[in-house]
Amino acid sequence: MSSINYTTRTEGQTKINTIIWTVPNFTNLLENKSTREFRTEKSKDANIDLTDSRFQLKMQFLGRDNDIIEIYYLSPMPVFLKSILTICLKRFEERSIVIKEYHTVQANKWQYLATLFKRDIASYDGRDIFLLSDGSLRLKFQFMVTNDIKVDRTNVPEAQLSNDFENLLNNGLFSDVTMKCAEGVEYKVHKAVLASRSAVLKAHFEHNTTECITNVVESPLESDVLREVLMFIYSDKAPRVDEIPEKLLAAADYYQLSRLKSLCEEA
Predict the structure, then answer these.
(1) CB 120 within 8 A of CB 127
(2) How confident is the model at residue 144 (pLDDT cuts 50, 70, 90)?
(3) Where is the BTB domain (predicted)?
(4) Annotated domain spans of the chain
(5) Parallel, antiparallel, or unpaired: how do β-strands 37-39 and 56-62 relate?
(6) CATH tag, 3-146
(7) For residues 43, 44, 49 and 50, what is the CA-based torsion angle, rounded to 10 degrees?
(8) Which of 56, 68, 245, 257 could bond to 62 as cystine, CB 3.0-4.6 Å?
């Protein structure tokens, strides 16, 4: 069971919420492949309920061997805040992980904060640096909530850009080029999108190339792999990265998609 130390103080118009989250036996948690999520719990103090009145925290474990740890927080109300995440080291030192400047946060929506990597923490040297003497991982969160700027408490719709571009791929609306896979399956796509995401694909359209004249790009990839690559190019999503990581890794390398390559290497 993890422990939470929650303190608040006020400086002018800013309320500073400091949370120390200690997760015991963290390497055991990483080695348990059934672990996919770990959250803060309700306070044992009857007057304090972390799920109702304070920030909540959670970790999500991704990859086949829990290689990626994503950190999230949730605010019970809409706020304008600055967030800082620090890891407490064994030798009474602290190391800053991320600082996010002031921005508006919706109520009761999990907000991504940072990513940690198993290879950094669970290695022999990593355990000596990042874990406490009893094997615990201790994280320090600071949420600085200001009243200087009025927060619109109306629910703001979630960002739709990724979904809109995914729909553009699916319906082929206003497409101006065709990508053909190794089996001959064709996908109606858009030069501007391809060129903005891949330097390799951009080169097909910059000069008087065959692709530029015919508006057909031949790809050596299999149909299912090319479909996933296009999904990533349009939406920044890789839903099948855990199913076909080797094929997607080769495709990402071929089209110079560095983020997709990193996702495949961590899968």
Answers:
(1) no
(2) very high
(3) 175-242
(4) 3-146, 161-266
(5) antiparallel
(6) 2.60.210.10
(7) 10
(8) 68
In residues, how long is the chain? 267
Residue type at 108?
N
Task: Quickly tell me which residue has 């939470």 as its tokens.
Answer: 4
Residue 192 structure tokens: 């501007």
With H, G, I as helix, E, B as strand and everything else as coil, classify residue 67.
coil
183 by DSSP, 3-state: which?
coil
CA 61 to chain centre: 11
The 8 Å CB, 24+ separation contacts for 63-67 are 63/118, 63/242, 63/266, 63/267, 64/33, 64/242, 64/267, 65/33, 65/118, 66/30, 66/31, 66/32, 66/33, 66/35, 66/118, 67/117, 67/118, 67/119, 67/266
The rounded percent of the chain whose pLDDT value lies above 90 is 55
Under the phi-then-psi rule, with left for phi > 0, alpha for psi from -120 to 50, and beta for the rest, what region is 89?
beta
CATH 3.30.710.10 fits 161-266, yes or no: yes
Residue 128's pLDDT is what?
86
Cα 178 to Cα 53: distance, rounded to the nearest angstrom: 53
Question: Which pLDDT does position 150 carry in this prediction?
Answer: 57
Task: Tell me what percent of the residues of the chain surpass a pLDDT of 70.
Answer: 91
Q: What is the dihedral of CA 115, 120, 123, 125, to 10 degrees?
A: -140
Distances in Å between the Cα of 32 and the Cα atoms of 38, 126, 164, 179 are 12, 18, 37, 42
What number of other Cβ atoms are within 10 A of residue 252's Cβ?
Answer: 25
